[in-house]
Structures are given as structure tokens and as C-alpha cells.
Amino acid sequence: MNRTTVLGTAGLLANGVLAASLATLLWHNYDEHKKLQAITAQQQVADFNGSAAHGLPAVSTPFRVAILTPVSVSALERLEEGFIKNLSASQAATYECTTFNANGNPTLLASQIEHILDDSYDLIFSIGGMCTERVRERSIKKGSSVPIVFGGIKDFVAERIVDKDDHNITGVSIGEVRFEEQIDVLLTLRENVGSVLVVYSPSVEGLEELVGKMEAAFAKRSIAMESVPIFETNELGAKVAPFMQQGFDVVMTLCDPVVVSGVSQLVKLCEQYGTTLYTSDEDSVKQGAACGFGGSEEGLGIAGANLCKKILEEGISPEKLPIENAELGFTLCVNAEAADSQNLHIDPKLWFLMSQARIFRPSAA
């Protein structure tokens, strides 16, 4: 018998800003908005040639899991991919995953949450602080018992959102950002850094405090730092351009979906002014940033899926599953083509070592 995991993706795309009064029409007004798109992909997980030989009962109905994500950015997509990939490999159950993408629209997010809570899903996987906070609040008001597993939330945000008396929520949190390491890596790659411009969105919880810590860390190294707050992706170029004329050596971005989704605008400016663009994610480097040092979000999704399987396959209550802390595995990325045009001239010896290195870590055993 072939066990099949059904992977479905449903996204609502809205044109413009929707008034709250139109929220309930989003699902039906196909003339004004694009139809709800459901993409179903079937993936063969295992050919058991008779499940009895493996001691596994036949699974006739898949678990229905709703994935709630705030916006389309590569980092969150990798988190989602890790989650789905892990579930699809389960040999104990099959899963039907439906993704609801709010596309940065709070009204759309509220409508999606109502739909999810009313549509008999077995579990909700919420990505990021905003989605988790909104779905938890609405779940409590509606008296819903649907388990919630979250991913991609910093420790202190998880502590604020999740009350000790919550019975139907658990998840995977992220520890403190290793900004001191990020700064040291930058100074190893690029000599004579005298000034850094940090571009960030204050709407992302925790970044305001992080920027303050980074300013002190740069000052300790005798490096001047300024910051540019960005509230909407479409204002990125216009807000940063005047600062570029001041001759900053480096423009730095953080783990910030608002800024990362518009990184191409920063790439153009840094190419124009010969400024090194240093990011906190791998995909921005692939899109033209000179270099980056950041973590992999896929592992967060994998850890979230493990909690999901414990709840649905083993019947463990979320309240008995403590919030897990996942360490992001940081990786250095360099765009060889963009480096020269962005004034990143890595020492040839260091470049050789980086290009030839293979790192082996002894197993914990």
C-alpha cells in the first residue's frame, strides 16, 4: 500500500488596502480579488507493500493542518518548507497542509483566522509573532480547542504571547540574535570599516532594542552607526537614498521581513555608491548583497513539525509540550560577483581558505 501525503497551498491575494467592512467578502468577491487558489501536490512518502508487515494501521483520512504566515519572504518560506517536508516524511500518518498568506494585510489576516477556526482544522501552525498573537487571541474568544504550534518567534516574544495557563499552544522559539558575532565577521571580511548604516523596521518586535545594542557594540569598536527606520517596503529606496550620499562604508540589514522583501532596492543603491551590503540572511546575498551572516529557518520548521506530530499522532496535549528553543545555525555567505562592485575586497588568503574549507563536527555521542 502506498502512503501519500497531500500537500495543499491556499493563498488569498488582495489588491490594495481592504476596509474592515469588506473582510467577509474576501472569500467570495472574485471580480475584485483573485480567487482562493488551492494547489494540491501529492508526494509518495513510502511504499509499504502491505502495511501489516510494518505494523502500521491504514490511514484513510489525513490530518488537516492550517499554516498561517504573515508575508511572502524567503526566510519564512524556508521555515514553512521545513515544516511541510518533515510532515510529509511521516510514516504514521498523512497530512493535508493549507497555507494562508496574509501578504502583510492585517484585515486579510483577521479574515483568514476566522476561516481557519471555523473550518475544522486539526492543528494550526502559525509563523511569526503577529500571526501567533492574533490567532491565539481569537481562538480564546471563540472558545476553540484547536491546538496551535508556533515557529519563528523570539524567546521574549513567546513569553509575552503565551500565558502559563494556555492549554492548546506550544511552539519553537529563537534565542538572542548573535549580533556581536555578526559584527566581528563583518570586520574580518572588510577592513577599515568606519561607518555603518543599519536599515530596519520598528514594526518587527524586538528590532528597536536590538538596534540600540548594536549601536553600543559598534561604538565599542570605534565605528559610527546610524539607523534608518522603515515602515513599508515600498518606501525603502526613497528613505535610504539620502543617507547613501553621506558615504557609509556598510549598509546592514537584520532578520526583518519588511526590509528583506525589498532588498533589491538596497542592492541597486549599494551598487551605485560602491557600498558593501551586509545582510542577516542567505537569500539577500543570492539577490545581490555582497555578503551575509545569518541563520537557517528551515530547522525551525522541522522542529515545529515534530511538535505537531507529537500532538496529532501521539495524542500529547500541547500543555505537556514545553516551548522549545532552537538555535539557528549561522552561515557566512559571499556573492563573488557583487563583492567587487560593493567595495568588498576580501584578502586573497582568506578567500582561498573560505572557498576550500570543509568543517567536520564530531557527533555528540
Notable features of this structure?
Rossmann fold, 2 domains, 14 strands, 36% helix, alpha/beta, 365 residues
Describe this structure in words.
The protein is an alpha/beta fold. It is built from 13 helices and 14 strands. The strands form two sheets. The chain has an eight-stranded mixed beta sheet, with helices on both faces. Helix 2 (106-117) packs across helix 3 (129-142). The longest helix has 15 residues, at 74-88. The chain is elongated. Mean pLDDT is 80; it is low at 1-59.
Could you provide a short overview of the structure?
With 365 residues, the chain is an alpha/beta fold. The protein has helices at 74-88, 106-117, 129-142, 155-161, 179-189, 207-220, 236-244, 257-260, 263-273, 282-286, 298-312, 336-341, 348-356; strands at residues 2-11, 37-47, 63-69, 95-101, 123-127, 148-154, 169-174, 195-200, 224-229, 250-253, 276-279, 291-294, 324-326, 331-334.
